[in-house]
Amino acid sequence: MTTRRVRSIAVVAMLSAGLQLGGCVSPGPATRFYLLTPATGSPPSQQIKPIDRAAKSVTVVVKDVRLPMYLDRPQIVTRDAGNRLEFSEIEQWGGHLREDLARVLVINLGRVMEGDRVVAAPYNPSVPPDYRVEVDILGFERQPGGRVALSAQWSVTRGADGMPHAGAEGSFSGEPLPDSVSYDGLVSSMSRVYGELAQAIARSIRLGGGAGS
After folding, report:
1. For residue 6, what pLDDT is reported?
2. What CATH number corresponds to the domain at position 103?
3. In 75-207, beta strands by DSSP E
4. By residue range, what is the domain housing residue 191?
5. Beta partners for 170?
6. Which of 77, 81, 149, 208 has the fewest CB atoms in 10 Å of its CB?
């Protein structure tokens, strides 16, 4: 048998073995991606009054929504008993969570502050906005008891001179979720709870001072 023929047989055998091994490897579960959604339902306008509506509508800029490091990641985070966090490698955010929170807050505030203009930064027109909003998310995940819990601080400054207008800290929680709840159900609950933050910020803007929950 010639050397060339021996080499050809060896190559075929190696390729065949590789194909067989490759066929034995089963793919892992596919990653699933989620987005927060704006709150639905009628805006609770009866809870929020002032700002002189006869004068003009106001412009509000959502300047920033900041996250703690443990939440600023693709994986959806839940909290187990005690101080342990769990990060899902399969269930992940479909975009950058920080950007998604800012996007949804703009929509939610616009819904609650009906008639006013709410936009996201950057905002550089010749006329400054009436108010700028900055939010620090302190915690936002499912707790061991089954509820989604959100805690946040926010500040509202006047657009013309940058002086403080309002600021507060609030805590919000959803309905208890069963242990068997899907991540679809979890993210839906997070979306509803996040909508409550917009209502509290709107009260701060319209009423001034601290307006926490």
Report:
1. 43
2. 3.40.50.10610
3. 75-79, 85-93, 117-120, 131-142, 148-158, 164-173
4. 29-207
5. 152
6. 81
Supply the pLDDT for residue 51.
Answer: 53
Q: In the chain, which residues have pLDDT < 70?
A: 1-26, 41-55, 209-213
Which run of H or of E encompasses 112? helix 97-112
CA distance linking residue 108 with residue 28, whole number of Å = 37
Using alpha carbons, list the distances in angstroms from residue 65 to 57, 91, 121.
24, 22, 11
CB 72 within 8 A of CB 97: yes
CA atoms within 13 A on the CB side of 133: 30
Q: Is 38 helix (H, G, I), strand (E, B) or coil?
A: coil
In this structure, what token pair is assigned to residue 167?
A: 């600021």
Residue 156 tokens, joined: 């509202």
Six token digits for residue 107: 């929509």
Q: Is the pTM of this model over 0.85?
A: no
Gap between the Cα atoms of 133 and 64, Å rounded: 7
> Residue 26 region, left (φ>0) first, then alpha (ψ -120 to 50), else beta?
beta
Residue 9 lies in a domain: no
The region, left, alpha or beta by phi > 0 then psi within -120 to 50, assigned to residue 162 is left
Number of domains in the chain: 1
60 close to 117: Cβ distance less than 8 angstroms? yes
